Amino acid sequence: MHSNNFDLSTYFRRINYTGPVTASAETLRAIMRHQLFAVPFENLDVQAGRIVSLVPEEITDKLMQRDRGGYCYEVNGLFAMALEALGIPYRFVAARPMFYPVRRPKTHMAVVAEVDGRQWLCDLGFGSYGIRAPVALDDLDSDISQDFDTFRLSRDAKGEYLLQAKVEGEWCNQYGFDLTPQEWIDFAPANYLNSTHPDAIFVQKLVIVQHLPAGRVILLGNMLKTVTANGVEKRQLTDDEMSSLLKNREWSGLMSAVFSE
Known about the structure:
- The chain is of the alpha+beta class.
- The chain is 27% helix and 28% strand.
- The chain has a single domain, classed as Arylamine N-acetyltransferase fold.
- The strands form two sheets. Strands 5-4-3-2-9-8-7-6 form an eight-stranded antiparallel beta sheet, covered by helices on one side.
- Helix 4 (56-65) crosses helix 5.
- The longest helix has 15 residues, at 72-86.
- This is Acetyltransferase.
- GO terms for molecular function: acetyltransferase activity.
- Pfam families: Acetyltransf_2.
- Belongs to the arylamine N-acetyltransferase family.
């Protein structure tokens, strides 16, 4: 994933990273977590009636120069730019969201990186219950603790992986994927669907997820949910609170500006 305006030192400043710069599992984990905590998941462009751009230079400008966030193609695309700059091999994989009541197409995009002799699932764009650090693909059928979350990865006889998360004490399917490499352009149809289709959740509702070391804050429509090790708190926001929140730059920089651009 190459962008003519991507600069690794600028990226590190954007994600507040000052650690080692090596092609290692340690660096992979560190930059994934730093980006996760610095760059929010958000669909403000879709809510403003825009189709999300997959032009690499426009993603770099949006997430790095304008301090915005994005959804899976954008945040994972930015992460892939960093991996390329670090010399860490990776591939894009297409994933099928599995938490819907009906079978859905493979509209999610994740990254599988190869470092220190192992393959690692990396994903900064799965919203509410996404992984918070790389998951080794050979760490199968065991509880994987990440901060206050627990995940599990399994693989069937056909080579299809399934990622699950423990949500309120129950294992919940998140998405399935295999290791068939995908080109960046392969996600254009899924991006168009997620940006325009009336059944797409990103078209139906505002979605913002800010991950933090101690938890995550989720805004789904006007429902504000805070998730920490102590549990989940929910409350409905009033119209005035929503207006105030969207003008608050703590979420992702100029969040309200997208509606007036």
